Amino acid sequence: MNTDNSFSSYRWVILALVVVCFCATFVTRFTWPPLITTVAPVLKLSMAQAGSYMSAFYIGYLVTQIPAGIIADKFGVRVVLAVSLMLEGVSTSSLAFTGNYEAGFVLRIIAGLGAGAVYASAARALVEWFPAGERGRAFGLLMVAPSAGILISNFLAPTLNQMFGWQGAFMSVGTITFVAGVFVALFMRSNAPRENEKGSLTAGFTFIFQHKNLMLTCVAGFCLMWLQLAVATWANVYIKSIGFTVKEAGAVMMWYGVGGVLSPIVAGFLSDRLNNRRVIVLVSLALTIPLTLWFGYETSLTALYILSFSAAFASYLANPMLNVMVANYAGVQWAATASGIANFLYQIASLISPLVLGLVIDWTGNFSWVWWIMALGPAAGFIVMLNIKEEQT
Question: Are 29 and 111 in contact (CB under 8 A)?
Answer without folding.
Answer: yes
